[in-house]
Amino acid sequence: MSDLPHDPIPLTPEQRAILFESLNDGMSIYALQVRCLVQPFRPDVFEQAWARVVARHEMLRVRFRWTGVPAPYQEFLPAVPAHVPTVSVRGGSPHRLRSVAMRLFDEQFERPLDLERDRAVIPYAVHDGETAYVCWTSHHIVLDGISSRIMLRDLSEEYDRLLTGEPGPPRPEAGSFSAFVRWRQESEPPAPASPDVPLPDRTGWLVRALGGTPAPAEQRRIIRPFADDLMRRVRETARETGVTVATMVHAAWALAVGGRTGEDRVRFGVVGYGRPHQVPGSAETIGNFVATSPLLMPAAAGEPAGRWLESVQDALVRTWSTGRRTALDADSILVVSHFPPIEHFTGDRSGCRVEILDVADHAPHPIVAAAMIGDPALLLLHVNGVRLPAGQAESLADDFLRHLDVLASARIDVLASARITEGPTNYATA
């Protein structure tokens, strides 16, 4: 097989935006690291399994070019080294193994990525001969959240086969990210010269309202589990009102943000997972398919709640169907994920286990709310590069859950006549 790369492929608009920010503010701002527990761990077998996954997915063999070229591009190498560096920690307790692994992973995560030279997804394992903690350090220009799970699912399947001594023939290559890029080029009309509705710059509004100050090294994460029956009630209300669960979640976040900023029309970034059915195999393809777009929410004050939820859904549909720009001028982003926050893959043959423990993420946006609406459901509120007064981040997370609870508590006939009055934070019955 030739070692020469395939034809250069242009970046998607989302990749270009990520690269632009990364070159301006440092490659680490969009870095991500997936951390897993692997049992049992056999270093040689694990590396073979990783090599088979790398061979199957072209995005795990990507190399980017932007220095000295007219326009940045990506190229996919036929083969790349699939070595998994390992550190052996012997004679200690399980607690010590985890502690050493997390410290080494933190050090790996702080090293700047050079996507023009390094492998774009770099594994690293710390083990005691039986159990291993493994991380994969990469960048959002390469992977989205669904891609990480595809990668780990395929890895667990290959590892399971190899552990039993029945690897079978190499699996065929998965769907092609380059095919998705070409489809985007062919199917999307040129972007309009200006948006139909001018969107005001909302950079810093929420942070200022929360009393935040710049603190580049600050990274915090607030975790708030949903009440036991909250998602059940959200689903029931969504079904009765004819909107999606995601609409309910976005509406609750808009109310929480508007309650702090005092805005009638709240602005924040929303994330769409764009894996088009027109591209064969896109559901099984690794790559960055997400588009973060600015959403200007419809005014809530004085509107019947049911009608307002419908207008929120309409705004989301319009944004996702024409999402061309990243939300660079809004200081909060909402991500709605149907995946559980922790997931594991178990081999059918050997019983091997690959469990996702955590995902470390250097997001450039000051406030990123991730609503995980799987089981268990919870809110992860990330605060990046700003320092908030004590309790402000926790209070914002609690506001979101309170608004979601109120939206999900009303019966359909009451919700249809409920009005949101005196700004976005108060409810009354008409």
UniProtKB/TrEMBL annotation:
<protein>
    <recommendedName>
        <fullName>Condensation domain-containing protein</fullName>
    </recommendedName>
</protein>
<dbReference type="InterPro" id="IPR001242">
    <property type="entry name" value="Condensation_dom"/>
</dbReference>
<dbReference type="Pfam" id="PF00668">
    <property type="entry name" value="Condensation"/>
</dbReference>
<dbReference type="InterPro" id="IPR023213">
    <property type="entry name" value="CAT-like_dom_sf"/>
</dbReference>
<feature type="domain" description="Condensation">
    <location>
        <begin position="223"/>
        <end position="319"/>
    </location>
</feature>
<feature type="domain" description="Condensation">
    <location>
        <begin position="8"/>
        <end position="186"/>
    </location>
</feature>
